[in-house]
Design goal:
The protein has four helices and six strands. With about 170 residues, it is an alpha/beta fold.
Length: about 170
């Protein structure tokens, strides 16, 4: 949210050489870049809807932090040829499974991803349930932590923090 991730990543210390950010909103991208620069970080910002077109498909990172909008639907059907959907093509009705897979697609094998979501993706069945099963089989979910209501100022829904490990073989 508006460059907060850049501040969190700065806490990682000298390992953080460059922060790459993406936001769908031009103004938020400018604010995010400015916040990173205030922390003396090299910042590369992109304005894009990452679930439609990934502006950095080759990027593999040590740390990925994502706070996507809650309860979002995909603007268009997910492409079955998108390499990010290795655990299953996300349903159009909910973008949560897409966000999780987007984070995983950008992690180095030794990387760690952090994603905040509503808790509802933990209980949905259908395609999302199958994707969760594949994530567990692949051993990429380190933890899912239930967070209290009103933890973030913009929502009162109960949240979950997903802690994800980079896939052992990112090329598969």
């Amino acid at each position: 949210g508006i460059g907060e991730a850049a501040q969190l990543i700065a806490l990682a210390g000298p390992r953080s050489t460059t922060v790459v950010g993406v936001d769908v909103n031009q103004g938020a991208a400018v604010v995010g870049a400015a916040r990173g620069l205030l922390r003396s970080l090299r910042v590369e910002m992109h304005v894009a809807d990452v679930l439609t077109i990934d502006p950095t498909p080759e990027l593999l990172a040590d740390i990925v932090v994502a706070e996507p909008p809650f309860g979002m639907q995909s603007a268009s059907p997910a492409s079955i040829t998108d390499p990010r959907w290795r655990y299953g093509v996300p349903p159009r009705a909910s973008a949560d499974a897409a966000w999780i897979q987007h984070v995983l697609a950008h992690l180095k094998p030794t990387g760690r991803g952090y994603l905040i979501s509503a808790r509802s993706p933990l209980a949905r069945g259908g395609q999302e349930g199958r994707i969760r099963a594949e994530l567990l089989k692949a051993d990429v979910v380190r933890a899912v932590v239930g967070l209290p209501r009103k933890l973030l100022p913009n929502t009162s829904v109960p949240l979950a923090l997903w802690v994800l490990d980079g896939p052992l073989d990112p090329s598969v």
